[in-house]
Amino acid sequence: MDTNKILFVNSKPQLELDIEKYGIAGIANCYKDHDTYLRLNGGMEQHHENVDFLKRNFISENQLITREDFDKLTPEEISQWEALGSLGGDNHFIYVAHFAGDVPVIGINSKPDYSKGNLLYFKPHDLDEIFKKMKKGDYSLKEWTKAEAEINGKPIDNAVAEYAIGELNFSQMTKYKISYRGNEARQSGSGILVVTPAGTRPKSWYYNYLHEMYNRMRKQQQVDDYTPIIPEILKSHENALRFLVMVPAGDYEIIGGEKKGEILPGEELKIISTSDSRGVIIPDSDDSRESNIIDTPPGSEIKIRPSNDKLKVVKCF
To answer: What does 47-86 look like in DSSP terms, one character per residue?
Structure first.
C-alpha cells in the first residue's frame, strides 16, 4: 500500500465541540463535575498533541482533512484513496467507516490515555511501524459485518454499527408491527436498535442499555444472582446482527419473545411503522446530518438483514 495515498480524517474532541457550542463561559454549566471536565480536557490536549506529532512525522498537509471537509467529499473522491485513517475514538471511527465503501479503514485512537477505543487497533505512535509494514504488504484486511436495510423495497445506507428505529424525538413512544422468524406482534416502546458486532462493543448504546436493564432486574430480584449482567459482545467478523426493543421504563419483559434476538444470514427483521408522529430510521445513529434521517411514515415496511458487503479494516501482523 502506498502510504502517501492514505487520507486521515481528524475528529474534534467533545470538549472542543462544547466550547464552540456554548462558549467558554457556558462550559462551567455543562461540566459542574470537575473530574469530568479534567478528563475531557486531558483527552482534548492529548488528541491535539498526537495529531501534531503525526503531522510533523508522517502525514503531509494534503493527507489530513477535517470532518467538515470530509462530509463534502463524494463517494468517487473517497474511492481515489487507498485507505482512510480515523483519528479519534470509536464514534469517529464509525462515522468514517460509514462512508468508506470498499476503501480500507485504519482506526487510530488519538487519546489512548483517556479513551479505550474498543474498535481501534492502533495508537498514534504505532504509525511508524504501521507504515513500514504497509509498504512491505505485511498487513491484513479484516472483514467486519455490516447491516443492510430497505424501506418499501428501496435500499438505504448500510450500517457499520447500528440502525436506530423510532421517533425522531426518541423520548416519544413509537408504534409498529414486528415480524421475526414467523412470529408477528404489535408493539410500542422507545424504539428498536438493530446492531452489528461493532454495535455490541462496551459503552455502545446497545451494550449500555442491556447492562443497565440487567442491573435493574437484579435489584428488583427478577433474575437470580447467577444471571450474567454483562451483555454479549460479538466478534467483529461474526456474520450476525442483534436487535433490541427498547421498552418504556419499568417494563423488563424485553428479555423474552420477539423483543430481543439475533438475525442470522438468510434471515431478516421486518418492521411496519404504525407511528402517529415522525417515525424515522437512522443509520449508525448519526442524526447530525438531515440527509441521514430517513422518514418512515405509517405503513412503511422496513427490512433489515446482515449484509454481504463487508467493512475492510486494516490490521498489521
So the answer is: HHHHHHHHHHHT--GGGEEEHHHHTT--HHHHTTSSEEEE
